[in-house]
Amino acid sequence: MVNNERVLNAFHAHYSHMDGVRLFRAPGRVNLIGEHTDYNDGFVLPVAIDLDTLVAIRPRNDSIISVYSVNRSERGEFDLEQPKEIERGNWVNYIEGTARRILKKGHSLVGADIALESDVPTGAGLSSSASLEIAVGIALLTISGEQVDRKELARAAQEGEHEYTGALIGIMDQLSSALGDENSALLIDCRSLDINYIWIDVTKHALMICNTGVKHDLATSAYNDRRRECAEATSIIGHYYPNVISLRDVTETQLMHVRDKMSPMLFRRARHVVTENHRTLAAAEALRNRNFDRLSELMYASHESLKLDYEVSAPELDLLVDTALTIPGVYGTRMTGGGFGGCTVSFVVRDRLLDFTERMKSIYKRETGRNLEIYQPEIVRGAEEVAERFMPVANE
Ligand code: ADP
Ligand code: MG
Predict the structure, then answer these.
(1) Which of 132, 134, 165, 172 to mutate to test ligand 1, by most ligand atoms within 8 A of the CB atom?
(2) Which residues line ligand 1 (CB under 6 A)?
(3) Rounded CA gap, 379 and 202, in Å?
(4) Ligand 1 centroid from CA 283, angstroms
(5) CATH class given for the domain over 4-199
(6) Residue 127 half-sphere exposure, CB side, CA atoms within 13 Å?
(7) Which of 24, 84, 101, 341 is the most exposed place for a label (fewest CB within 10 A)?
């Protein structure tokens, strides 16, 4: 867990006194199933996890937002009233993008001093970026006295990330961080943004995340390529079936009818999305019925589809999935997040956890020479103000 005291100390070090400082948190997330479906208007099934971005914030009496990141040991700032040209590659973009989109939606924001720290690993597919955006977004809105619907905040953060970082991500990460709930998966319809909360029975099975520690270079550009490929496939299919607005609308039968109208590659991309939507709805049903055998089948099938049809897996992820398949007590494992590295997610029977972690770590080390990090996250609530905000600051 990120440490309140460390964030408050950082705030104190950079902005001197502590009067009126408030604390907010927003979680990262892990997606159980429904990968690369959000930007196709489809279904996703994430949970918010107990890795957080923690934000200490105080209003200023001008329009400057000053942010210090403990993780980066860096401070950045921008002026709400004076947009400048976007400089790609700067971490402050995630914050500036969110803030400017909130303004664009008609809300007003005050300037603020901010110190923040996150224990969501960056670039690991657990959504450090959305956790950062939502934590700062909720903090800024609250100190500005603005009431904002959390779905609107999620949309602002997503649009800001598009504009300011060029990553054309879907809406899943921001919605999970803003609207997660304890021991619940969020079945999100990414067209209507309706969310069905599905209670997860974690008494016998634990959620486990394995972090490969690798991120291959092509992650962002390949993500945007996949979006374009989906749009191309949709427009070809839409030519024959005019009611098709996105891949969400395509049935497997329709897809088979137009198979020879597109390249084999586009067909495979579309097949992943169409079948993944079915798997996600089926997995939500399996979770509801505590049918972990069914959930397990669906998670492995999702991984196969991401590896072969969507081509976003990585050798390290495949190694972890293949290894998990040989370990008793594992109920499903798949890559999670955008892919090309990052993490896998599994359900593991609690009395086999030790065996699972030992075997996964030792085989990963033997095959790749790398250490495997394993988390056993709690499933937690979405963004909120943290009550104990006036902890004593050391050395004051
Ligand atoms: P993911 O969201 O899967 O972790 P992204 O590439 O979308 O990966 O976002 C990671 C980026 O978000 C980092 O490279 C950094 O720019 C920014 N970021 C996330 N958390 C922090 C933080 N605590 N301090 C500064 N920048 C952060
Ligand atoms: Mg991200």
Answers:
(1) 132
(2) 53, 69, 71-72, 91, 94, 116, 118, 122-129, 132, 337
(3) 10
(4) 29
(5) alpha beta
(6) 32
(7) 84
Give the pLDDT score at 388: 60
Give the per-residue pLDDT at 3.
Answer: 80
Nearest ligand to the CA of 211 is: 1
CA distance 323 to 61: 56
CATH number for the segment(s) 205-375: 3.30.70.890
Q: How far is CA 384 from CA 50, 54, 99, 197, 271, in A?
A: 13, 10, 17, 18, 38
Sequence ranges of the domains in the chain: 4-199, 205-375
Ligand located closest to 337 CA: 1
249 belongs to the catalytic site: no
CB within 8 Å of 167: residues ≥ 6 apart: 129, 161, 220, 223, 224
Counting ligands in written order, which one lies closest to the CA of residue 119? Answer: 1
Which residue lies with its CA nearest to atom 18 of ligand 1?
Answer: 129
The rounded distance, in Å, linking the Cα atoms of 208 and 362 is: 16
* Continuous segment of H or E residues that includes residue 280: helix 264-288
For residue 360, the 8-state DSSP code is H
Ranges of residues in the chain with a pLDDT under 70 are 1, 388-396
Tokens of 327: 């370990």
Residue at token pair 């590896």: 307
At 221 the pLDDT is 87
**Relative to the CA of 91, which ligand 1 atom is closest?**
16
Q: What is the CA radius of gyration of the chain?
A: 21
Amino acid at site 360:
M
Q: What separation in Å is there between the alpha carbon of 38 and the centre of ligand 2? A: 13
Q: Is 188 helix (H, G, I), strand (E, B) or coil?
A: strand
**Annotated active-site residue in 41, 52, 113, 173:** 173
Sheet holding 384-385, edge to edge: 74-79, 64-69, 112-118, 46-59, 22-31, 384-385
Flag whether the pTM goes above 0.85. Answer: yes
Give, in order, the Cα–Cα distances in Å from 379 to each of 31, 215, 233: 12, 25, 36
Identify the burial level of 326 via C-beta atoms within 10 angstroms of its C-beta, where 0-12 means exposed, 13-18 middle and 19 or more buried. exposed
